[in-house]
Amino acid sequence: MQQLPDWMIFVGNFGFPTLIAVYLLMRFEKRIDDLTQAIQDLKESKNQED
Questions:
Q1: Using CA atoms, how far apart are residues 10 and 37, in angstroms rounded to an integer?
Q2: Residues of 7-17 as b/e, b for ≥16 C-beta within 10 angstroms?
Q3: Keywords in UniProt for this one (predicted)?
């Protein structure tokens, strides 16, 4: 049985989790922006009531 080169082991151990983390961050970025906008809208509407 042939052994894998060190770089392939490194990619297998760290590349896949890094890829998943980047994917999730990109997906949640839009939701975070939407939440930020909603908070700003609530803040503005509260200031208008006062």
A1: 40
A2: eeeeeeeeeee
A3: Membrane, Transmembrane, Transmembrane helix
Please report which helix (H) or strand (E) contains residue 38, including its range: helix 16-49
Joined together, the tokens standing for residue 14 give: 């760290």
pTM: 0.53
Question: What is the separation, in whole angstroms, between the first and last Cα of the chain?
Answer: 75
pLDDT per position as a tens digit, 8-25 = 888 888 888 899 999 999
Show the tokens assigned to 42. Answer: 């609530």
